From TrEMBL:
Pfam families (alphabetical): Multi_Drug_Res (PF00893)
Name listed for the protein in its UniProt record: Guanidinium exporter
Topology in membrane: Multi-pass membrane protein
The keyword Disulfide bond is annotated on this UniProt entry: no
One BP annotation, GO: xenobiotic detoxification by transmembrane export across the plasma membrane
Family of this protein: Belongs to the drug/metabolite transporter (DMT) superfamily. Small multidrug resistance (SMR) (TC 2.A.7.1) family. Gdx/SugE subfamily.
SUPFAM superfamilies: Multidrug resistance efflux transporter EmrE
Length: 106
């Protein structure tokens, strides 16, 4: 159950990061509300996952899901640049997430 909570928390992190970008510095009400609600839910689910999972594992995977998700969303939806350096950096993050999952409790 902790891994499911952690995965959902990571997805919510992507949503709140995207909504924060769309809020234009919290000047638009709807994306601002989405940011706050999904941020609270993400942190709440992360805290549930941390009851069972080690801090380093949970936090690394949570931030990794958020970073990779935001990277993909930025490219797919916001038209952000795709460079070899950015792709290599994303692959390194993914390899870190996989390594943490393999090293953590099952």
């Amino acid at each position: 159950m902790a891994w499911i909570c952690l995965f959902i928390a990571g997805i919510l992190e992507v949503i709140w990061a995207f909504a924060m970008k769309k809020s234009l510095g919290f000047t638009l009400i709807t994306p601002t509300i989405i940011t706050i609600v999904t941020m609270i839910a993400s942190f709440g689910l992360l805290s549930v996952a941390m009851k069972t999972l080690p801090l380093g594992t949970a936090y690394t995977i949570w931030t990794g899901i958020g970073a990779i998700g935001a990277f993909i969303l930025g490219i797919a939806v916001l038209g952000e640049s795709v460079t070899l350096t950015r792709i290599i950096a994303a692959l390194l993050i993914i390899s870190g997430i996989i390594t943490m999952k393999l090293a953590g409790p099952h």
